[in-house]
From TrEMBL, chain A:
Its main location: nucleus. InterPro entries: Beta-prop_RSE1/DDB1/CPSF1_1st, Beta-prop_RSE1/DDB1/CPSF1_2nd, RSE1/DDB1/CFT1, RSE1/DDB1/CPSF1_C, WD40/YVTN_repeat-like_dom_sf, WD40_repeat_dom_sf. GO terms for biological process: mRNA processing; RNA splicing. PANTHER family: DNA REPAIR/RNA PROCESSING CPSF FAMILY. It comes from Hibiscus syriacus (Rose of Sharon). Belongs to the RSE1 family. It comes from the Eukaryota. Residues 831-1088 form the RSE1/DDB1/CPSF1 C-terminal domain. Residues 763-782 are annotated as: Disordered. The keyword Cytoplasm does not apply. This is Splicing factor 3B subunit 3. Residues 416-736 form the RSE1/DDB1/CPSF1 second beta-propeller domain. Keywords: mRNA processing, mRNA splicing, Nucleus, Spliceosome.
UniProtKB/TrEMBL annotation, chain B:
This is Splicing factor subunit. Belongs to the SF3B5 family. It comes from Hibiscus syriacus (Rose of Sharon). GO terms for cellular component: precatalytic spliceosome; U2 snRNP. It comes from the Eukaryota. It holds the Pfam family SF3b10.
Amino acid sequence: MYLYNLTLQQATGIVSAINGNFSGGKIQEIVVARGKILSLLRPDELGKLQTLHSVEIFGCIRSLAQFRLTGAQKDYIVVGSDSGRIVILEYNKEKNVFDKVHQETFGKSGCRRIVPGQYLAIDPKGRAVMIEAHKSHTIVYSICGVDCGFDNPIFAAIELDYSEADQDSTGVAAGEAQKHLTFYELDLGLNHVSRKWSDQVDNGANMLVTVPGGGDGPSGVLVCAENFVIYKNQGHPDIRAVIPRRADLPEERGVLIVSAATHKQKSMFFFLLQTEYGDIFKVTLEHGNDGVTELKIKYFDTIPVTASMCVLKTGFLFAASEFGNHALYQFQAIGDDPDVESSSSTLMETEEGFQPVFFQPRGLKNLVRIDRAESLMPIMDMKIANLFEEETPQIYSLCGRGPRSSLRILRPGLAISEMAVSQLPGVPSAVWTVKKNVNDAFDAYIVVSFANATLVLSIGETVEEVSDSGFLDTTPSLAVSLIGDDSLMQVHPNGIRHIREDGRINEWRTPGKRTTVKVGSNGLQVVIALSGGELIYFEVDMTGQLMEVEKHEMSGDVACLDIAPVPEGRQRSRFLAVGSYDNTIRILSLDPDDCMQVLSVQSVSSPPESLLFLEVKASIGGEDGADHPANLFLNAGLQNGVLFRTVVDMITGQLSDSRSRFLGLRAPKLFSVKVRGRPAMLCLSSRPWLGYIHQGHFLLTPLSYETLEFAASFSSDQCAEGVVSVAGDALRVFTIEQSDQGSYTAEEREAARKECFEAAGMGENGNGNMNQMENGGDDEDKEDPLCDEQYGYPKAESNKWVSCIRVLDPRTAATTCLLELQDNEAAFRFIHIYRFLEDGRSLELLHKTQVEGVPLALCQFQGRLLAGIGSVLRLYDLGKKRLLRKCENKLFPNSIVSIQTYRDRIYVGDIQESFHFCKYRRDENQLYIFSDDVVPRWLTASYHIDFDTMAGADKFGNVYFVRLPQDVSDEIEEDPTGGKIKWEQGRLNGAPNKVEEIVQFHVGDVVTSLQKASLIPGGGECVLYGTVMGSLGALLPFTSRDDVDFFSHLEMHMRQEHPPLCGRDHMAYRSAYFPVKDVVDGDLCEQFPTLPLDLQRKIADELDRTPGRY
Amino acid sequence: MQASDRFNINSQLEHLQAKYVGTGHADLNRFEWAVNIQRDSYASYIGHYPMLAYFAVAENESIGRERYNFMQKEKTIKSCSSGYEVKC
């Protein structure tokens, strides 16, 4: 089995974020590391976060820092990763890529104890960067640069030397081990680093923050420790202040600072420090000539706990939440109002230690949230099911944790936001928008056609019906468009109505009793098809008149028409495409010298329903991605639901390189729209699709919207790039959200946290639209007036639990049943049996059965219950009062975390020792293990693939498949004892047979759920996975040997020609724990279109192919 | 093999042991070996953010707290001295 790994939705969690002016100039930008992805975000003027660029680096980003060379206008990015190399990147705004400026190798690859890369520190003047020094027997907790103006750069580090503790077996030295703050100086003249100063520091110290120096401040560092913030500098006494505590915090818990941001202006500076509970404190220093005199910590606001905070110069705070959605806040104030404050001058030391300061969290006062960026992190579990009976299944995922957890329903497709829906008097058949002048920015009219009338709506402050537009309203319309510079055209069955700018109306009538059936136009040229198959060609002449130029008789009725857009600087376009009912598409010339000559013919599988020429203009990169030559594509929606796309030669009109794709059950109708100012295509089949260019790829992506009949682009001052559409008797206006991360949209539902999530009895007992889940959390007090989402649950004492079970109806997003477990009871110690009531809407407790361990896995098996309780696999029967033990096997190594069954086989996953294949013999009432794995695997997810195969994921970020060899499997099935005799012998301290690893791949992220599903109607099945960082990926099996060959060679060439950005070797990364086996990395192959054209050609030549136009 | 060569290899090993923490040697006892693995594990957890987040979810702590706990001497140093007695 060969698989193709592809990320469907990039990770949404953030490891680290930095801000600066990366594209140069004054624009504030944010660079975020999302595990293995580096992205550049920019908040626009309205405060909406836009992703400009996102690149997978095939490595693990551990730290980020930005620096600016003295006097420069542009920030550079330093990346510390697992590559054993330090990489300096520059954002190239012309090409919209990160360019590698420098790469320096310093150690082995991988996240190891002895290889630096975890911490980065920058000299504030941009003269030096330090990666943590790794001396043996020293733990480094944090490093930072010390601002000392233009003197030699100094770096500070919190270190702990444990060499003595290691020598001392009594543990005394270990108890006395003391953290030190050490200053290292880089002598620029000698190019040498020396240890300058070292001083004892609080043993709870965990973070350093640079204090501005030189002319801006007192220099030195802030040492954040558990419960304290301490100002330290060489030759300066410590200034210490206590971090205020929440009043309801249990006494044994400390307060730890987890993220920090500095704001510096010409006249002042302050620090924002966030605690592990989400409270932000503003730290200010009183300083004069004799150094710092006072350190003040004032309560600022409370926002969800962040991994990184960035204070932007434009007055925004970007908060990269560690779990759940990220947010952008705007400063309303900078905390000058009086509030709870702790200061170094009022610090009281008593016999029990320092006197704490208490505060109560309150609503936001200084910040206001203006935008949020969706984050699925962490996806704890997911199920793929088609509960809504749509064309494609939905992905139900449990995201986030604690009070910020949610059940999100994901659908493949772009998100849309609906702006208006209005009912129309009848059922419309078509809709158009027109401008009054070619130079207008916005549309003037929306024209809706009904079966026997036309309705004109004018767009202004409001959209209202008008009758003075000049359009004929007593007839249906076939096309409405702007023609020439400033006149309007309405094509109706009996002719063409040409409305001049001054109100004059020219009417052209169809000859005889023939009616117009199809129209194609491009603003300067119009072709109409009459019933019977006659084509009449009109052109706009110099005076703005519509002149008949040519007639042409086709052999039969015309199914559809389109004229290519007029190339820039030309009078007319040369190509007319005509689709006929004899399953052909013809390209006709519109040039005066060979007018209506057939240039080429293409036969297709079914009569075409709709045609659209899409011109892709040449670009030299820019913010949209890679280079593209100009190309003209002919798209055809066929009656069998297939979208057919072919390249039209710009000179000869020859068709080549045709591709087709099934879009849905209805013939796709094609409409031209704009996406980010570039031409795009909207295809309306049984669901809408959008074909557009994103970062150099042409993507055809479904929209998460209902079936539409007809659509047109729409632009007004409220919405620059919208779409107006008709469906049923409603007119809908919507915009397409540019989701930059990938093509999944989430719909948030009821907050709920998971331990275990089962789509209950899918198909088996007929309650398909039900989810059952067990919750675990440890909130104690729900009467808090503040919303838990923002402030978090109050911390409980350890070993306190609150759990609940919730039944949700995903259609209404309503909880139909909520069972709270009482008396500190969590999801362990008991197995509860519930009965579904009211057609699966609620649950009723039947009975509880006490067990001796934590039951982590349950599975139904032949009408009984299999439970994994610690290391015991047990079979229960349902009794009246409790579960009845039937049979058990205690031979599992550690703890059972997953059980799956198929026929009489039981596939058991151990928390540490991979899969065990078991069998149950009913006649002997015995469970026995007949096969296991030879590799220790710390399972986090598992899925049953087929009779002999299991897929699993381990906590180190690997996905693997194991299979029982065919002969062993046959032997076991044929053996009347089922391999029992052999089992008693055992092998290598385990089962007699061993499974073989057939697939192995390092995803680089902890996979928490695996499921097999088919996401395209009629498409093949693939294995989907969800990860802790909030990404979704798929493993697709290859169907032919040729594809495997092609993709493995492409992957090989890509590895050579396009090594990962941060210096990690691609093959080594994908084999980080075990050698990669039979998986081609699609994420790497998909970067092919971003390569320079000559490189693309070179690789294509070696593969005996030609590079695609897209 | 000459005696001087052997001396060379030994000195090379010593150099390795000094440079790379955790390089084994003939007299390594079971406990030192385990301590090394434990420290390597914590270092790896801290380096791999998704794994750190996974533990943070399980323990219902913030990621920053989890990182702090993994580095505190209770986990990295004391484990060494407390078990030293049972060396074998």
